[in-house]
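Practice problem 4.
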């Protein structure tokens, strides 16, 4: 579906210069790609502009001058706005353009974008990522792909700049679905850690020794182990903000509801996340999703 140019020397666009998007865009620029970037708050594009990236006024402006476009934005509404809004990228995309949509959104939104794009002879890959800001900076993300496999194969050199591995999952929406499965385990794993730590502390175990021994076991995942320092210090700098985990729990449970798939433990974890999110929102804080450990400690009056 794409033209010869995107296959040989594509002009890239990147929409969304948040914590993840800016780091991925920086890697593409460092790899030598001709890159145009867009962000609603223009000041977030300044560092990349200083390194040689062009800056678009709108998503439509970006799509008009590029061949392959990546995007990483906050949620379903943001994706639909930058893609299908009045100044959205689909409005000016030429036939053969490819969109690599890397946000964590609902499978339904991914499928809808795919259908809209097909009408314009444009391709969309839902391509959410697993990993946080350190992995984005190091090119060590894992990417889940939904859409046409032939389009995925053409995009693999670009994905290889960003990820240590990418997995083709199937038709449109499959990548988004896989990401929700992964983040189910991510969220539940942190809730499990929070309960285990709270139990040990409530029973009188010394915090530093408890965390040291937990970290030495095989039952903790790398993700859980990476948060033990937060728990030890009682400080939760946001490599993956709790507000995004809360959003993802909503996507997971909404998808499960439509599929009539029972997820009782996930529903309980969402409620703890909701309680912590309410506290952070009220205080104007933006902390890591591992802050649910503190929530559970406070509930138990540790």
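Answer key:
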């Amino acid at each position: 579906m794409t033209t010869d140019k995107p296959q040989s020397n594509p002009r890239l666009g990147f929409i969304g210069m948040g914590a993840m998007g800016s780091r991925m865009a920086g890697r593409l620029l460092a790899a030598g790609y001709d890159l145009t970037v867009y962000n609603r708050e223009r000041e977030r594009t300044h560092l990349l502009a200083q390194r040689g990236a062009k800056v678009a006024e709108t998503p439509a402006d970006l799509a008009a001058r590029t061949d392959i476009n990546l995007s990483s934005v906050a949620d379903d509404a943001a994706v639909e706005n930058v893609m299908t809004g009045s100044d959205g990228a689909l409005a000016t995309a030429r036939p053969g353009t490819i969109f690599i949509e890397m946000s964590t959104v609902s499978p339904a939104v991914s499928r809808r974008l795919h259908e809209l794009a097909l009408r314009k002879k444009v391709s969309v890959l839902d391509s959410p990522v697993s990993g946080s800001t350190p992995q984005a900076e190091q090119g060590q993300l894992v990417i889940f792909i939904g859409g046409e496999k032939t389009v995925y194969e053409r995009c693999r050199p670009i994905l290889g700049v960003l990820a240590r591995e990418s997995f083709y999952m199937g038709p449109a929406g499959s990548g988004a679905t896989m990401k929700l499965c992964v983040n189910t385990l991510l969220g539940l794993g942190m809730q499990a850690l929070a309960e285990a730590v709270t139990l040990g502390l409530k029973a009188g175990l010394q915090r530093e020794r408890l965390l040291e021994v937990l970290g030495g076991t095989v039952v903790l995942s790398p993700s859980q182990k990476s948060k033990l320092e937060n728990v030890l210090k009682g400080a939760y700098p946001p490599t993956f903000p709790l507000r995004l985990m809360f959003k993802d729990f909503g996507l997971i449970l909404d998808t499960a509801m439509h599929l009539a798939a029972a997820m009782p433990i996930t529903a309980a974890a969402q409620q703890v996340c909701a309680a912590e999110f309410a506290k952070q929102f009220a205080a104007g804080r933006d902390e890591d999703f591992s802050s649910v450990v503190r929530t559970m400690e406070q509930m138990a009056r540790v």
